[in-house]
Design goal:
The chain is built from six helices and five strands. It is globular and about 50 Å long. It starts with 19 loop residues before the first helix and ends with a helix.
């Protein structure tokens, strides 16, 4: 990350000081551990998401594996979007961040914000944490807001399902 500690990163993290060969090895090793992986995204990668060399390796890997990439938008610079447009990959971007807190009420507000975004724009990608910065609180907030989502006509789908829906829309509009 641009602001953060290297000690926060897990094994096989992609950092700007890695060689090209180590980037490729880390990608392959990580992917091999995830049998049902359909895509990848950046989490604390603000610095890496501004680095064309690293992004080129990531997007080549994504294209080779025919998986999708979700940009968590940890960087305000459009480097990833620009490079993804040049690569033959499925590239999606987060619209709403749900948690980073254990406060169920705050997460509920963010879920409803995501629902409103989806109603207005046709879809919304909302991301959150599974561990201590969300996890149980996010699950509870999703349960609590389920009736409101249904009332708004919002359906939660997997990222693979959304990617397919968006791809079909793009094909039919061209």
């Amino acid at each position: 990350p641009l602001n953060g500690k290297k000690s926060w990163l897990g094994p096989n993290a992609l950092t700007t000081d890695l060689s090209d060969a180590q980037i490729d090895t880390n990608l392959s090793d990580s992917f091999a551990q995830l049998q049902y992986c359909v895509g990848m995204n950046n989490h604390m990668g603000s610095k890496a998401m501004e680095n064309e060399r690293i992004l080129t390796h990531i997007f080549n890997f994504v294209a080779t594996k025919q998986i999708l990439f979700v940009d968590s938008k940890t960087s305000t610079k459009p480097t990833a979007r620009k490079l993804a447009a040049e690569a033959p990959i499925s590239f999606l971007e987060r619209n709403v961040f749900l948690d980073g807190t254990k406060d169920v009420h705050t997460i509920e507000k963010n879920i409803l914000k995501a629902a409103d975004y989806a109603v207005k724009n046709g879809s919304c990608i909302a991301i959150g944490h599974v561990g201590i910065e969300g996890g149980t609180a996010t699950v509870q907030a999703l349960k609590n807001t389920a009736p409101a989502l249904a009332e708004k006509g919002v359906q939660c789908v997997t990222i693979s399902q959304l990617n397919e829906i968006l791809h079909k829309k793009a094909v039919s509009s061209s």
